Amino acid sequence: MGHGDLMSRAEDVADQFLRVTKHYLPHMARLCLVSTFLEDGFRMWFQWGEQSEYIESTWNCGHFLANIFTLAYSILWDPKFLMRNLALGGGLLLLLAECRGEARSVFAGVPSLGHQSSPKHLLQLGGRVLLVLMFMTLLHFDLSLFSILQNLVGTALIVLVAVGFKTKLAALTLVVWLLCINFTFNAFWSIPSYKPMHDFLKYDFFQTTSVIGGLLLVVALGPGGVSMDEKKKEW
C-alpha cells in the first residue's frame, strides 16, 4: 500500500468518525474545553477553607502581594507554563469563533466582509496557532530513536494544524496522542490526595483536557477560511 493510499484510508476513517459523532462532538469539545475552569471552581468551593487560611496567613505576614507578583513572574518566564496557558487561550479563541458563527447565522441576510478576512476566520487561525503550542512542551530533546521519531511526527502534525492542511485528520491524531499522554503521565487518581504531586498532576490533566477540547472543535468545525484546506477548494 502506497503513501497516498494510506493517507486516503486515514482520511476515510476520520470522515467516518465525524459522520458518527457530528451531533454531539461539538458539545463534547466544549465540555472538555471548560473542564479546567470547572475543576478550578470545584476546588475553590470545596477547598475554600484551606485557601482562605493561606491567604489570611500570607496577608498577615505582608507577603500576599509579593506572592502575586512572584506567580505572574513565574508564568511569564517559565516557557512550558506560558505555552500551555497560551494553548488554553487558543481553545477559547476557537470557542469564540464558533459563537460568532452562530450569531452570524441569525442575521444571514446582512452583508459581511470577505470570508478570508472575517473576524471569525482570523479567530480560528489564531486559535489553531496557539493550540499547537501545547505540543511544543511535549518535545523531548534527546538522541534516543523513540524521542527523535516522536518529535518528527509531532512537529509534522503541529505544522499541519497551524497552516490548516489536512487539518481534521491532523487534529484528530493529536487528540489521540494527547489522550494517551494525559491518561498515562497525568494519572493524578493514582497518587494520594495529601501529596503535592496529586494537585500538580490534576492541574496538568484538566489543562490538557481543555486543549483536547480545542482540538475537537477544530475537528468538528474545520480550520476556517484562512487555511490551506480552504485554499484547495479554489484551486
Automatic annotation (TrEMBL):
GO cellular component: endoplasmic reticulum membrane; endoplasmic reticulum-Golgi intermediate compartment
Transmembrane parts of this sequence: 147-165, 172-191, 211-228
Keywords annotated in UniProt: Endoplasmic reticulum, Membrane, Protein transport, Transmembrane, Transmembrane helix, Transport
Localisation per UniProt entry: Endoplasmic reticulum membrane
Principal location class: endoplasmic reticulum
Organism whose genome encodes this protein: Etheostoma spectabile (orangethroat darter)
Protein's recorded name: Surfeit locus protein 4
Superkingdom of this protein's organism: Eukaryota
Family label: Belongs to the SURF4 family.
A single GO BP: Golgi organization
Topology class, membrane: Multi-pass membrane protein
